[in-house]
Design goal:
By secondary structure, this protein is α/β, with parallel strands linked by helices. It is about 25% helix and about 15% strand. The protein has 9 helices and 14 strands.
């Protein structure tokens, strides 16, 4: 079983902290919170400035290129020897997004802090000063097996690969009953649905019996959402539960609808 989530009392000596607090409703909120106070030694990664390739048209929070991600981790002073703890406000999708990116880049010792910043701030020093780390040069061990492209998903939809698509959005959006963000309502054909918020318990994330009954460890699974952000928590909790054949379609629904048709209703 892969260890993904830790509590504050499990953090080891000489940790590297990454603060990923963010608000989809106010894109400046996370950086403002970081400036007001963050865990001593933490660096800040912004969902849109750091963890998405906003120059791409492949969805609303597109996948970073390998060159962009390599630049991010190197200028952040990270190395494979570091034990890295990613946090957000707790029970949010932003730390899982950063965790996923780091796993894609092959970092072996990276964890999501359950309870987020509030839990950490009770046990670790808080500061307003920004840490400065020496830039690193890395030979990254890319984990391409956890990433799914639009072409990969099209092969699944066309029946060329036996893979379960798992839509992490709210059920009403999945069914096509309403769509508050994207121009077309519905879901990627053949997809099942499991609202990612069902793995939230207060400020923590964890797998539960409902999710584990929706998909089995024997299946290959590709998780997606609206823009690739809230798919990350489902990927993380499935990994925590010991699922090995899982990928994220980072472009997600907002990328799919630029090229292909959708379904409405529900797949059981």
């Amino acid at each position: 079983m892969t260890k993904v989530f830790v509590t504050v009392d499990e953090i080891v000596e000489k940790p590297r902290f990454i603060d990923t607090r963010f608000s989809l409703a106010n894109v400046d909120e996370g950086r403002t919170l970081f400036a007001q106070g963050h865990i001593d030694g933490a660096i800040y990664w912004d969902l849109e400035r750091d963890l998405s390739n906003m120059e791409s048209s492949n969805g609303r929070h597109p996948m970073l290129t390998k060159e962009q991600l390599q630049s991010l981790v190197e200028r952040s002073g990270l190395s494979y020897e570091d034990t890295i703890y990613v946090y957000d406000q707790g029970g949010s999708p932003f730390a899982p997004r950063a965790w996923y990116m780091l796993k894609y880049a092959g970092f072996p010792n990276v964890y999501i802090v359950n309870g987020g910043y509030p839990a950490l701030a009770e046990e670790f020093p808080v500061t307003t000063e920004e840490a400065d780390y020496q830039e690193t040069q890395l030979m990254l061990d890319w984990q391409d097996g956890i990433y799914a492209s639009r072409d990969d998903v099209k092969r699944i939809v066309d029946g060329l690969e036996k893979v379960t698509l798992l839509d992490a959005r709210a059920t009403g959006r999945y069914r096509g009953e309403h769509e508050p963000i994207d121009p077309i309502a519905g879901h990627i054909p053949t997809a099942k649905n499991f609202d990612w918020e069902q793995v939230k318990k207060g400020s923590t994330l964890a797998p539960n019996d409902v999710l584990l009954s929706k998909v089995s460890k024997d299946e290959e699974i590709v998780v997606y959402c609206g823009s690739g952000v809230t798919a990350s928590p489902l990927f993380a909790v499935l990994a925590e539960a010991g699922y090995e054949n899982i990928r994220v379609y980072v472009g997600s629904y907002s990328d799919w609808i630029t090229t292909y048709d959708v379904e409405v209703g529900e797949n059981i």
